[in-house]
């Protein structure tokens, strides 16, 4: 029966009419080809990320024949169709040889040309499902192959075949095969890789040894027998890549560190195969590289994760979205832009803004930064400054810019947690509990927030109280705008956050927050150094950076200034790199409802300056009550006090100001004199003080007069991580 089929086939082929009226042309086939990967493009159409969305088979992008290596084309023709450029769809010599071999039951390669194989890939009723094609399928395949040769060029046939042929497992087409097995573009395939690839076409699921044998025969035919050495080992490595790719569901480009994978997962799907996002490819790459560089520098500080988001102030467009440090992280799948982390001090600006709105304070108001205990009904809440160093009476401007905790908690006592909670919700922070649940710790960032929502809340400050959601794709309209903050209060908070002089109390004049353009910025560090933040805005952009560990493990001696702020500063510099000198000197214009006045303090506790006020709250001089000095005594620290070291402030700045009211005398710490005797007789306010580096442990501070007689003594304790001052740091010195 089999021999009669062969003879009948040859006779029918010569007699059958060939019609190509229903056949698709090359461009139609190319147009209906759909990759299994979707594409995320930047705002200019530049490819940012591919993401697999079709899991039935893995197909890459269509590759032009000119972009496929000559080694691959040569190997394919040698293996599958040596007379490809000579026949017209059917290799009659091969058909005759196959027929003769069948007559004598001799095993042969078969007579299917590349054109016939392409016909089998194009026509649904010709596709194999594990079984051999029957006689009529073979005849139809032959007819279509001849029609293809009349309508298509040879290069089009070869190009379509290479883009559609299955190679191994779920890999279909040369792009997916090359990227997965050899981790390179098809243009880069060498002779060994090409031999392996074409050996898979006949038996896609063959064992490595079988594939190696076939590939070696081809290499020998090409007079390259030396490349047969360790061929099986190379094949096993390639197959292991395919296995890993199949298990993860990610292509190689999906796994590249720093790509826009996390946003791609939000925007791409089987129905959304190509999305033009709001991202800027150049900025995305720069933000990624900057973050990775900073985290690499911090690798010995037990920190491996980070995230960056950049927003356009006017539109709310997300210009950069870096969800992970990529290869540096053991949790690269976690999106640090949307993950919830403890906010730390980053919520303070919104508390001060609300207090300004309610006219509870002005930027010039004095707040006592001294120990505080609050009866919450569940016990005493005793907040501490991060450096456990109380500054005494300071202005609201200094308290916010220098991130002092006690003044913030005192403000929340007046504002109350629930109204502050409602304000944070209106800013889109999406807190999970209630104001009563967080209590007064809400002033110090005791709530979990996402980097995206927090950065957008700061963008609301930049826009003087106008809130809108962010946008991640260009085909969606901007979110509606609502007024959440009062413009005068938002403006004053921004001015406070941009004040280097007010910030210097804690951070010094030169630090990573000092941008080369006008910028309002705030850092934050959560409990036990688990998270640190730097969020700030300029005239056109708002930049948010988070650094920490996705696992929640604490970092070692990393604060917002040393961890996240350098990344923030570099990105701000990049964003404004082309600004003119005039643009760099830009300061936001004051809105209606604010005015500026010269302010001074009666005891010169803070320097006289020009200050911004909401209309109706302007002051020109603030009187500070005199201290009733009385008998000589130690004013600070208090007897029995427990201090703690602050992870958010550089160690060199963590000095405690020891104070005593005395006409003349000196201070002694644990038996060592730490202040130079100063005579102040005749003055109404006499104070002896010294800056002291807080060493963990129990301490005793004594106040002595000129004769060495004890006037007062207190015992206290310092807790927290051991901080060592920098080499060459000055010893404590007297400050008057």
Automatic annotation (TrEMBL):
Residue intervals of the Penicillin-binding C-terminal domain: 630-716
Domain Penicillin-binding protein transpeptidase, chain residue ranges per copy: 306-539
Entry EC number(s): 2.4.99.28
Taxonomic superkingdom: Bacteria
Database matches in Gene3D superfamilies: Biosynthetic peptidoglycan transglycosylase-like, DD-peptidase/beta-lactamase superfamily
Boundaries of every Glycosyl transferase family domain copy: 54-220
Enzyme class: transferase
Alphabetically ordered keywords of this record: Carboxypeptidase, Glycosyltransferase, Hydrolase, Multifunctional enzyme, Protease, Signal, Transferase
Pathway where this protein functions: Cell wall biogenesis; peptidoglycan biosynthesis
Stretch forming the signal peptide: 1-22
Reaction(s) catalysed (UniProt annotation): [GlcNAc-(1->4)-Mur2Ac(oyl-L-Ala-gamma-D-Glu-L-Lys-D-Ala-D-Ala)](n)-di-trans,octa-cis-undecaprenyl diphosphate + beta-D-GlcNAc-(1->4)-Mur2Ac(oyl-L-Ala-gamma-D-Glu-L-Lys-D-Ala-D-Ala)-di-trans,octa-cis-undecaprenyl diphosphate = [GlcNAc-(1->4)-Mur2Ac(oyl-L-Ala-gamma-D-Glu-L-Lys-D-Ala-D-Ala)](n+1)-di-trans,octa-cis-undecaprenyl diphosphate + di-trans,octa-cis-undecaprenyl diphosphate + H(+)
InterPro entries: Beta-lactam/transpept-like, Glyco_trans_51, Glycosyltr_51/Transpeptidase, Lysozyme-like_dom_sf, PBP_1c, PBP_C, PBP_transglycosylase, PCN-bd_Tpept
Family recorded in the similarity comment: In the C-terminal section; belongs to the transpeptidase family. In the N-terminal section; belongs to the glycosyltransferase 51 family.
Protein name (Swiss-Prot/TrEMBL): peptidoglycan glycosyltransferase
């Amino acid at each position: 029966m089999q021999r009669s089929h062969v003879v009948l086939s040859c006779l029918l082929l010569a007699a059958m009419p060939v019609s190509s009226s229903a056949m698709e042309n090359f461009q139609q086939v190319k147009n209906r080809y759909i990759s299994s990967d979707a594409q995320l493009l930047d705002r200019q159409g530049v490819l940012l990320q591919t993401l697999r969305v079709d899991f039935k088979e893995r197909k890459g992008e269509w590759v032009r024949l000119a972009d496929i290596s000559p080694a691959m084309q040569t190997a394919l023709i040698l293996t599958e169709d040596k007379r490809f450029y000579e026949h017209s769809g059917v290799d009659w010599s091969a058909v005759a040889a196959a027929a003769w071999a069948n007559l004598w039951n001799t095993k042969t390669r078969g007579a299917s040309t590349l054109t016939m194989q392409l016909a089998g890939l194009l026509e649904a009723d010709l596709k194999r499902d594990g079984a051999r094609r029957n006689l009529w399928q073979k005849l139809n395949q032959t007819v279509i192959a001849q029609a293809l040769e009349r309508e298509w060029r040879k290069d089009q046939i070869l190009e379509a075949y290479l883009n559609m042929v299955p190679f191994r497992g779920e890999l279909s087409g040369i792009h997916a095969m090359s990227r997965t097995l050899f981790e390179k573009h098809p243009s880069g395939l060498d002779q060994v890789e090409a031999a392996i690839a074409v050996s898979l076409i006949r038996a896609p699921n063959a064992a490595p040894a079988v594939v190696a044998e076939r590939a070696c025969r081809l290499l020998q035919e090409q007079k390259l027998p030396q490349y047969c050495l360790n061929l099986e080992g190379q094949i096993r490595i390639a197959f292991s890549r395919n296995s890993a790719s199949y298990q993860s569901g990610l292509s190689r480009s999906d796994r590249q560190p720093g790509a826009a994978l996390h946003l791609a997962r939000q925007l791409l799907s089987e129905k959304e195969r190509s999305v033009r996002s709001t991202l800027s490819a150049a900025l995305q790459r720069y933000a990624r590289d900057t973050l990775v560089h900073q985290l690499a520098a911090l690798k010995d500080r037990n920190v491996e994760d980070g995230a960056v988001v950049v927003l356009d102030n006017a539109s709310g467009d997300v210009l950069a979205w870096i969800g992970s440090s990529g290869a540096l992280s053991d949790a690269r799948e976690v999106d640090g832009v949307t993950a919830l982390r403890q906010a730390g001090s980053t919520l303070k600006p919104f508390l001060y803004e609300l207090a300004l709105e309610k006219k509870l304070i002005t930027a010039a108001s004095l707040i006592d930064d001294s120990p505080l205990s609050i009866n919450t009904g569940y016990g005493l809440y005793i907040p501490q400054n991060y450096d456990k160093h109380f500054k005494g009476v300071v202005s609201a401007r200094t308290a916010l810019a220098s991130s002092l905790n006690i003044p913030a908690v005192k403000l929340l006592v007046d504002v109350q947690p629930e109204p502050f909670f409602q304000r944070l919700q209106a800013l889109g922070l999406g807190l999970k509990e209630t104001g009563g649940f967080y209590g007064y710790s809400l002033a110090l960032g005791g709530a979990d927030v996402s980097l995206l929502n927090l950065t957008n809340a700061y963008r609301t400050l930049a826009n003087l109280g106008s809130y809108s959601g962010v946008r991640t794709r260009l085909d969606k309209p901007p979110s509606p705008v609502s007024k959440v903050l009062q413009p005068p209060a938002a403006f004053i908070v921004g001015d406070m956050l941009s004040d280097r002089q007010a910030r210097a109390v804690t951070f010094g004049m030169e630090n990573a927050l000092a941008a080369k353009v006008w910028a309002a910025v705030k850092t934050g560090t959560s409990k036990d150094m688990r998270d640190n933040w730097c969020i700030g805005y300029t005239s056109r952009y708002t930049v948010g950076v988070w650094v920490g560990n996705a696992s929640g493990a604490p970092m070692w001696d990393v604060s917002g200034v040393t961890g996240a702020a350098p990344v923030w500063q570099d990105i701000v510099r990049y964003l404004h790199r082309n600004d003119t000198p005039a643009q760099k000197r830009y300061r936001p214009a004051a809105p209606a409802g604010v005015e500026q006045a010269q302010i001074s303090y009666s005891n010169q506790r803070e320097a006289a300056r020009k200050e911004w006020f909401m209309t109706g709250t302007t002051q020109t001089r603030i009187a500070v009550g005199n201290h009733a000095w009385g008998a000589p005594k130690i004013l600070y620290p208090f007897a029995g006090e427990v201090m703690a070291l602050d992870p958010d402030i550089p160690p060199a700045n963590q000095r405690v100001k020891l104070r005593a009211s005395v006409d003349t005398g000196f201070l002694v710490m644990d038996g060592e004199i730490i202040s130079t005797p100063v005579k102040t007789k005749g003055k109404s306010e006499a104070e002896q003080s010294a800056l002291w580096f807080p060493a963990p442990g129990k301490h005793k501070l004594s106040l002595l007069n000129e004769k060495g007689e004890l006037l007062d003594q207190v015992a206290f304790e310092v807790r927290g991580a051991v901080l060592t001052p920098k080499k060459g740091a000055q010893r404590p010195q007297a400050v008057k």
